[in-house]
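Same chain as my last thread, 665 residues:
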Amino acid sequence: MHHSKEKENSPKPYEEVHFVETSGPVWNYSIFTEEAVNNFQQGTLYNAYQYFGNKQLEVLDTEGTYFAVWAPNATRVSIVGNFNNWRDGIHPLFVRLDKSGIWEGFIPGCKRGEVYKYSIHGFEGKIMQKGDPYAHFWEKKPLTASITWNFEYNWSDLSWMESREKHNSLQSPYAVYEVHLASWMRPEPFDEESYFSYWQIAQRLVPYVKQMGFTHVELMPVMEYPFDGSWGYQGTGYFAPTSRFGNPEEFMAMIDFFHQEGIGVILDWVPSHFPYDSHGLFMFDGTHTYEYADMRKGYHPDWNSYIFNYRRGEVRSFLISNARFWLDKFHIDGLRVDAVSSMLKLDYSRNEGEWEPNEFGGNGNIEAIAFLKDMNQMVYRDFTGVQTIAEEATNWPGVSRPTYADGLGFGMKWMMGWMHDTLRYFKQDPLYRQFQQNQLTFSMMYYHDENFMLPLSHDEVVHGKSPMIYKMPGDEWQKFANLRLLYTYMFAHPGAKLLFMGNEFAQTEEWNYKTSLRWDLLEHQSHAGMKACVSALAHLLKQEPALYEQQFNQDGFAWHDLDHREESVICFRRMTKTNDQELMVVLNLTPKERLQWTVGVNSTEEWLEIFNSDEKKYWGTGNYVNNTVIFPINQKNAGSYKIKISLPPLGGCILKRNNPNLNPP
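reply #2:
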């Protein structure tokens, strides 16, 4: 047995390893077991980050760093860095004799914080310098080397981790604030290269999210990426938070702070494609190592990037380990998986002749489907109180159904159809809404088919689509009233909610990753009122179980009145599991006030208005608030009652049935 001491929670060294030589610059040393290698090749090594990359160890009483990289078609691999003046061949790694394509070795005296790359002699004599696919820390762009790093952080979120299942379950409220860390807020005067640190962002963002009432943040990709203009969706360092804002421990501290304040953290994750940067995964050993070799499967025309080869076990191990890494080492509460549609379908964004059917003649990418199922099974088996969320825009069945029920195994799926229909409806002149009511009501036909999250994301406020406030018709007052009404409808609709940063205060420009949000707009009552309205809705979502307990099943929602198409007034109910609590949502979708509007009810119980989008504090008129107890009036036909309420122009109100059993005197 070797005398080795490890500084991190890594697997024990492989006991059968023999030191070929300990006198050279690199020692032949391994931490792999035969089982780990086999699992890696089979696509079932789900903790590959504990073997690959760099590890600061002590071997034979000598401190140093162990390196391991998969480069199956390389003829020689060595470590280059500042410590050897980037000279190739001085620190060569040893290739394993089991034909696994794994190169490894231990460099005595190599410490934490060393900058390095792999110099790979690849196919047909090509020599490349590549970053470490499993590195935990990279140089700050535009530099592209990896940095030797082991985590040194003590977490303080134990109470969150032990109880987060209550917070993150499918029966819990989800009001998600989607954030791009660089452009949420920048130091002034700001430019594209000015960033707050993770900790500076946390000190500003965490209190803001808490004050607003959001339950979760979703961070656009933080995995290291070279080009700001990709917004993080073209990643090169899958196992490292970007160094733009600091080191990995500072990112951990940010997540820790969110957890201590009771806020969950969801990360955007991109297992669908990666860029062609020379230091990244593309042509890693001179051949198509991580990507499909057939460019009909391996090249992504939409994003000019390359698609992971899900047929290769080593690539599946890399990706599933990556999902596990963020949940394991960074205490992440959920992964929103990007571009799932593009992974599932071989003909996605491809014309006739540009794709090849699978072995059964269909258009499904069978290997990608199996990968997604394996990934989701691992997540839900090994981590309690977490969710995976699919960005998936087709009618693929069972995306958020368990794998044992022939689903893909995600916890939730983005409801893209709801988003498109709702925006199309609200963009119309209210005069014509009576003819388009089905755009607003159609989502109720299928909202229970999947566990849906309603997204008003970054994609809706870029590329000429205009900011949310300017999608709305009418004069300034009507634009704001329409948007408050849209958000009221969104928060009352079944499903989890997601709102992109800036939407909550009606940002007046499209999102620009190079700048900062327009925080100065909050000096105007209209924008401050919008922010107050969204905050009230987010807090209401958390306070009212009828809005979330049954958000994914049919029993939590019922149409109450759809018979006033001409007036464009719709009314629906939301209920708790035991039906002891009930909300009535009434939306007036035109600028015409509706005084003494009648709503039929079936009991004598009183109703209280708990939200009205026309309140003065939201920059409404304040003239149509139903601020007293509403008593039902007995109608002539026995057992039938009605209530009368004021409906604000372009406004929505939410009423709660006053159940005396819940409020004993």
